[in-house]
Amino acid sequence: MLDKTIVSMGALAAVLFVLAASAAAQTEFSLTPYTKGAASMSKTALTDLRPNSDDPLIEPGKGHPWTAAFQVATTNAVVWLWDRYVENLNYSHISWKSIQYNFQHGFIWCLDSLSTGFFGHPYHGSSYFNAARTNGLTFWESIPYAAGGYLTWGFLFENDQPSYNDLLMTTLGGVFFGETFFRISSQILDDTAQGGNRIWREILAFLINPRRGENRLVRGEAGRVLDENKQLREPIWGTLAVGDKIISRQFDLSNTQSGVSGDLGFFYGDVASPKSSFRSPFSLIFWDSGLRRAQGRTYYDIESFAFIAGKQLETSNGPQHLFGLFQHYEFLKTEVFSTAGTALTGGLVSLFPIGGGMSVKTSVQVGLQFGGSTNPYIHLEARDFNYGWGGIGKVETWLDFAGFGRLDLRFRHSQLFSVDRRIYENNESHDFLTHFLARYDLPVGAGLGLRLEYSAYGRRLNFEYHPSLTFQWSQLGASLVWMF
Q1: How far is Cα 300 from Cα 263, in angstroms, rounded to an integer?
Q2: Is the dihedral of CA 316, 321, 324, 328 positive or negative?
Q3: pLDDT tops 60 at residue 31
Q4: Which of 10, 195, 232, 259 has the CB geometry, 3.0–4.6 Å to 123, for a possible disulfide?
Q5: Same domain, 250 and 179
Q6: CA-to-CA dists, residue 29 to 43, 188, 190, 194, angstroms
Q7: By residue range, what is the domain housing residue 176?
């Protein structure tokens, strides 16, 4: 259980991420407004945006693994010192006996809140991951540092036992956040920039990826001007929206309340690469997130996935396909329920040009997820949810009408079966969640547009010892959109 300040830091990072992704889209290497059509973007951006390799600054076997390990260790030590001698938190009162106890009794399912377990720990894990990534290690070489960072923390720096869920989310969530932050900060940085242009890039990259910013300052890279920019570049396009959403606890939008909202969504990378049919991890990222304020409370959601491994299926002047393994990260907090988790799926992402600059992009994915979902019968310290494993399936379509806008259609269904049944005292559940979204963005000029969207969630909780529960939640929104 990391201290609650980690969640606050993560929330700040999410806000900075919005700014960073927007700024990244404005780099001279990556600006390709989607209103020109995804098909035309694929032809131009892919040949211009990759002057080097897919990861030009990383040479396998030539990183600094011991420096990375030292940074992971010092991160844990500094956090523990703060928790112990500033916050004086109970779990930070460790001793040789507590360490021995942790090794003797092993893992449990912990009692953290949903936000700490499924947002705070992934954010902290991203720091472990980027300790390695920004010290010259590859994506795959960096993963053990996320896991090792938590294992040393869980066994040595808390008097609570380490937990299965924290190991999973610090590792898998840390990898997802970490590589996303690494690539977005790469999109911002420009080693050839000077003056004010260089300063704002370094500051913004530091804020979105603090570990990278620290290492650039220590190595003198933050102020060193090069003749060639070797930062990793990919095409990126998306939207930043501000508006109002009407919320209801029914699908028909009865008994509504409204609140101001902000949304960030983007595609990073392309379905097809001209360099190789085998793609690097996170060379394709989809991200959709929202922040909403209503009745004095804040609600938020993140839906995202990234390509991990696989192969693109070659076609000539026609459809393009990327087949393989994908990782997902989701977090949803509403007035009715909350749910979060990560998933690994097999899937196919495709791009179908249909002429006139128009195209259809699709994603079909099925796999296994680990997550948490609120349960009205669970009240264990900060925890009010079940941990569970289950299946997940998604079908998503993005229709790009060139200058006439874009239509998004998404359908998602998942199930969670409770784990750690002994602690629930007959309150374990079988959780079904279905989500549908329809969204249309209409360009009105100067990179701006109007958005209209409808989203609905249906949830059913089946219990062995309680009656089944059903929940409905829907929203209708209108926004002003900046299209980048």
Answers
A1: 9
A2: positive
A3: no
A4: 10
A5: no
A6: 14, 10, 10, 16
A7: 65-218
